[in-house]
Here is the input.
Amino acid sequence: MARKKIREYDSKRLLKQHLKRLAGFDLQICSAQVNESTDFTELTNKEPWLSSTRLVVKPDMLFGKRGKSGLVALNLDLAQVAEFVKARLSVEVEMGGCKAPITTFIVEPFVPHDQEYYLSIVSERLGSTVSFSECGGIEIEENWDKVKTIFLPTEKPMTLEACAPLIATLALEVRGKIGDFIMGVFSVFQDLDFSFLEMNPFTLVNEEPYPLDMRGELDDTAAFKNFKKWGEIEFPLPFGRVLSPTENFIHTLDEKTSASLKFTVLNPKGRIWTMVAVEVGDLGYASELGNYAEYSGAPNEEEVLQYARVVIDCATANPDGRKRALLIGGGIANFTDVAATFNGIVQALREKESKLKAARMHIYVRRGGPNYQIGLAKMRALGEELGVPLEVYGPEATMTGICKEAIECIMSTA
Amino acid sequence: MATGQLFSKTTQALFYNYKQLPIQRMLDFDFLCGRETPSVAGIINPGAEGFQKLFFGQEEIAIPVHSTIEAACAAHPTADVFINFASFRSAAASSMSALKQPTIKVVAIIAEGVPEADTKQLIAYARSNNKVVIGPATVGGIQAGAFKIGDTAGTIDNIIHCKLYRPGSVGFVSKSGGMSNELYNSIARVTDGIYEGIAIGGDVFPGSTLSDHVLRFNNIPQVKMIVVLGELGGRDEYSLVEALKQGKINKPVVAWVSGTCARLFKSEVQFGHAGAKSGGEMESAQAKNQALRDTGAVVPTSYEAFESSIKETFDKLIEDGKITPVKEVTPPQIPEDLNTAIKSGKVRAPTHIISTISDDRGEEPCYAGVPMSSIVEQGFGVGDVISLLWFKRSLPRYCSRFIEICIMLCADHGPCVSGAHNTIVTARAGKDLVSSLVSGLLTIGPRFGGAIDDAARYLKDAYDRNLTPYEFVEGMKKKGIRVPGIGHRIKRGDNRDKRVELLQRYARENFPSVKYMEYAVQVETYTLSKANNLVLNVDGAIGSLFLDLLAGSGMFTKQEIDEIVEIGYLNGLFVLARSIGLIGHTFDQKRLKQPLYRHPWEDVLYTK
Here is the structure.
């Protein structure tokens, strides 16, 4: 849900297409996307400028500070670009503590320039913040005091008066052009449901604004309105996040349902697994937490069954002879039918009886909400039926209390 | 936003996009609190109008349903709360429409997935027009003993357990609906209970913020302390920090910002709420908890200690004499719903209808136990389906094929027969298909179309009683009954009905026994001796062969056969078959655009 980063290639594509439509502005930028499956001949046929201009190549992986990390190459010809890319595709790099391979590059014309302007638009609760500076570029953070910012309340339109404070110190020759450009970009920002947009920098080529580097985030809840305008848009996972097959599976389940199903593996060898959001970290045993999880919003029995299967599979994947704990349930539901959702969990537990025993699983259930007594009774009966240690609690107990019990259980040497 | 109370014991609300369960829960809460009137004054269901029946205590009431927001607001001008259960696609538009109504003050938006830009518009409008938006992506909120939104606080059991049917002293606000329920329980354990609880929802831009409601609680005299449950992500809690710093809040605040385990994973993880995206030091739970602590809020060291912090703060208020003891009441009993009682085995209710031929309750509909997919995959035909739905068994292929032949042969008999004539007249009167069809079917009876059934009945009776053809025919003559199945206007002994021959041939080739038909042929031989046009006709052929089908298949007991003949299954076969022709005649007349039929005078004998 909500704000999703998009690749620089897509930000520029959307800007170019819709700036033309909304402001009649013909942005002269061109970009090409390169990944492992790119055929350079085909690409050059589509984008002939690749073979006739000097080029710039950068990773397009949703992380910034690329210049400072030495992953950018300037003033190459196409052959050199191909070589540069080939040497770096699928090679793991570390950025901000996250390690992952580079999968996508963006290739653009090399544009020598002097002026570097900074522009950003951020959507906020009561309006939008627009920032502009004449000292944009790689040193922007050091020159942050030169950035001018205006706040435009939601109900106010973007006008030349509104953005006057941003461009007041610009030379008259460029002020008009840049003012128009800012207004045009703003209208694209609003029309396409961007939540964040940053150009650091943009320059002037033949006196026309020309974005060099760009970042964007879209509000993905607007997809149902904007899918035509967005075209084939990709919302890549943040750099360093690779979904395991199980996480991917839950993710697709989550997309299809109106309920909320979340699952992230934290420590595959952990011994505390959960189907409910818990703050085990507070109790000091974060390292043993196998996953983050949540199901809410009244998932149906089938969805819960599939979800439970996945969690149990992960929880029992690496038995090591030591005790493990599985936490089920959670808070006191408002409208999720506890008995119905527990049916799904009961079925999954039954299916995985041998796995649970092999992993020395201790199950802790705590739940409240509609029909919880029936749900808990089913769990109790199941515990006896399977011969797996299963403790059942209603809303009279606390979730943290159960966590404590679970931790004590796995920590005990017996 | 600020100011104070939004709800009271007399609050009236409009409910947008009908959903039975949350409305019934609201009404049950109303009754529990001893409200005189239910809180839902009207329901809005676009495209529908009328009433919905719901229970207020034991009594059933009818709540009006309007098809537009304007109509509902006009009909219920004192309803100032709008509860919006529209899906995320239409939630923004309907909410804005509601906000624009002069009678509406508060809009609660349940849907998750409202685009941020739309929410911003709602926020801006609400701000400039002194209105309040709660949500989106929220379960709502509750004012104890007075009013609750939708599914907030869950079941009646939970509400009774948390004593939400009478006001306490705690004002509570959180992002998460699920967690707010948890806190209502905690707070009920260690204080005199909630006065009001609001869940602002999990979106990045909530319609009203945590601090909006905290400042509002600050102005409500009955609220003596405020509990806040925040979440990592966003900066909402900092506006609370500011308000505390500026001394705007003069009641104790106990706060906790959850999500501390996000620190544990470096790469961004999607939490349940859009707003809880982890990233950015200032937006971390730790930073916010510290900032709140620094400005004077009571912040425990962990979520586990939250309840005890709340308890300590409340106990101190009692010590300082700031709490007036709550007047405890016993809430009335809410009767259980019939279907819940049935599900839990407490009551059993008899059914009113029995049905045995088909079942639509499962994965796919079944005819006599055979699932639809099998019917299609195994290449069943109409005859097989009739065998399942009428006979409740799978007859051998030769039987179902015979049934199909009968249907084909009886499908139509030209425009002049009574049924077709009626249908034609009705169609030409401009009536619809069904009326035209039924008009024709209504002529089917003893004189038209009913002969098949009669033929089978009489032949069976005669054969089973071992009557000779002579005895049978003369017996009928004595009773003054024409032998059904015998006789034709045109066909003669030397110019037989082709259809009869086809049927007889099929039966001889496929049926294990044709004794009834042979008997019918003997009867025909006798009747032909009396007149040349007394041939066995199609009705007689079908009637007699049908008896052979039943008797020869070995799948029916004698009782079943008797019953089939008595009930008149063959009638059904004729009605079904002839419907094909009658519908055809209806279409024909409509295509031809024939005018109203009037029978010519010349063709009528007018007499006294």
